[in-house]
Each structure stands twice: as C-alpha cells, then as structure tokens.
Design a protein that fits this description.
By secondary structure, the chain is an alpha/beta fold. The chain is built from 19 helices and ten strands.
Length: 435
Amino acid sequence: MDYTTQMDAARKGIVTKEMEAVAKKEQMEVSGLMELMAQGKVIIPANRLHTCIEPNGIGSMLKTKINVNLGTSRDCKDLEKELEKVKDAVDMGAEAIMDLSSYGDTRKFRRMLTEKCPAIIGTVPIYDAVVYYHKALKEITTEEWLDIVRMHAEDGVDFMTIHCGINKNTAKRFKENKRLTNIVSRGGSIIFAWMEMTGKENPYYEHFDEILDICQKYDITLSLGDACRPGCIDDASDISQIEELITLGELTKRAWEKNVQVMIEGPGHMPLNQIEANMKIQSTLCKGAPFYVLGPLVTDIAPGYDHITAAIGGAIAAASGAAFLCYVTPAEHLRLPDVDDVREGIIASKIAAHAADIAKGVKGAADWDRAMSTARKKLDWEEMFRLSIDPDKARRYRASAKPEKEDTCSMCGNFCAVKNMNRILDGEIVSIFDE
C-alpha cells in the first residue's frame, strides 16, 4: 500500500475505493473530495480491519451525518436488544454507531459490530478501561490507558473519542472557574478524577504522539473529546469549554502532521443565540476540521423531550457549519433508551440534519422536498408515504382516521385547498358543501 491513511492518500493524489464511494454518494467529483480531505476538512472514518463498512464522508460541503449512541450498562445488559437497536439504526439511515458499553463482555459486542455492521463504528476507550481492568480507577496505569486504545484499534473501530483536551492546565482553570454542573462528560469526569487522585498528567495528552501512531497504523479517525462540554445552558461558552477547544486546535495540527484524520467534539447544552458563534470559533481554532456535536440542547427543562431540544440546536449547529450530529433520544438524562426511543431520536436527528443541508445548499438536498411537494400537489398518498422520513408512521396516522373520500384527509375533507385549487385551475366547478 502506497499510503498510510485516507488523508495521506488524498495528499498524495491516490484515489481510494472509499473516496470513490463517498464521492458518488455526495454527487461530487473525486478530485474535489480529495482536496477537502487533504486540508482536513473532510474525513472518511474507515479502519482497515472493518471490512464490511460502507464508507461515508463527514465534513465541509457534504450531507450532514448522524451518529447513534448505544451499548450495554450495568442495569441494561441484553446484547440482543442492543443488536436490535443497531439494526434499526442502520435500516433508518444512521451513518455511524457509537458503542458506549460499560458493562459485561464489551469486546465481544464491539467485535460483533465491526464484523457485521456496515455503519461507521466509534468507541470511547476510557469507558472500556474501567470495565476491562476490574480495579480501582486510581490503580489504572498510564500504560493501561494506552493499551485499551490499541485494543480498540485492533478490534476494527473506525473512530475513537479520546479525551485529551483536559490536561493539568485546563483542569486547573476548571477548578478556578466554578460551574453550575461541573463536568458532565463521562469520559471527562473519569480522566479528571484519575488526574486528581494520582497527580499525573492526562495520559492521552502526555502520550498523544503514541496515540497518533496507533491511529496511523490502522487508519483510525480521532474524535477529540470535549471533556468540558457544557452540561447546562448556564455553563455554555465558559472558560473551561473554550480553553479545552484551544488545546484541541493545537492537537489537531499535530494529528494532521502525521496524516491522522480528526474531528472535534462539541457541546452539549447551549442557548440558541450562542450556537452559530460557537461553530465559527471551532472552525477558526481547529482550522476547519469537521465538528461533531451532541445536540446542542437549547434548554434544560425538557426531560422526556430532549430529542426535540437537541434537534432544534442540531439544525442550527449544522446550518452554521457542524458536520456530524450525535442523536439524542427522549430517554436522555433519564435512562438507557429502548428501541422506540432510538427510533424517535434518529428521526429527530435526521430531520435536523436534512433541514441544515437545505440551508447550506448541499447538492441534491432540496430535491427530496420538491418531490414530496409534487406528490402533495397531486394528492398522491402512496408517493407521499414513500418519500416520508418515516413512512410507517405517516401511513399509520392516515389509516387511523380514514377520510370519507380518498382524495382528502380527515382534517380538511372537502375543504382541502390542494384539491380545490387543482380543480378550479383545471376549469372545474367547485362546490364544497354538496359534494
């Protein structure tokens, strides 16, 4: 092989099969895609060992992609249920699956994903270290933290969230500038606690070059984790968040020097009026590296409906430059999502992503809407169902309240504006009440 990573290939002018697949999906020339990849503005996460992957690109000028979080926990450890969620997510069009398993045989589940799942697979090695070593947090060594990264690479994962932005310096600033909700990132809280108990530097920051070597060997994309993402709107855009982002920008440049693909993780909870500015700050500090956001959730008061608060923020974030949306389900802040929660979260996230693509002028994005509008004008219900983002729900809703006449719905009946306009413009007589 004449290249080490997809980025290296793009910089050398080598067209890979992954680039060809992505260019076709995005309706763009391979040469244009390669130019963006060479600059770090587009990534194709694809571990060489994940042979069943169907590649997708993430970044500037491309369709906004979505990620689905799932995995086992101490309270919910049924692998079959998690695999059912994986299948549903892929069938519904999720481009990435992130395994956040924190209980049981995590390696077994991870390997099942990379052996059978065509979506991009991501993990957070820091969670797995706590499960894998079966010992007190402060007893885990620097070498063991790094060995888990190596294990995940060998298991075929395509991207890893590495919490390397919170070092001794950023941790000190965090303690000096009190927050309402402290650190809400699981990975961030774990590494912060380890640093506090051991007095040592964050191993992922201290040994960042070693992590880059692992990523380069397997062509793994680094997802630089936001340990200090805001956990409430009161903490949004504070010193801790921005300080960490500056560090992530510095680490991005170091990764690119080794041709390692990078994306940046972002907030979190954030009021509407701060989202666009945060996207611009990230793009500036991280030189256009793709931005991967959780939400952002635009209010803190909607447990049970946080898929909606996240979709509102996600649409604004993506329209302002974010490239990758992490879905949020109605179960956020409450429990592990079930299959129905996963479906609701995916649909909300896909709506946000598509709305943003229209706003950004992504090639072909508005064609779907035009086709739907044409079907509505024609009152072609079957075509409307086919074009729906959730065809089953659309069909079920119509069937639950069948209209008297098939060319109307039970909301308007003979008052249907579409029906009446079609008829009057065709020269017909419209008489609503006696039809």
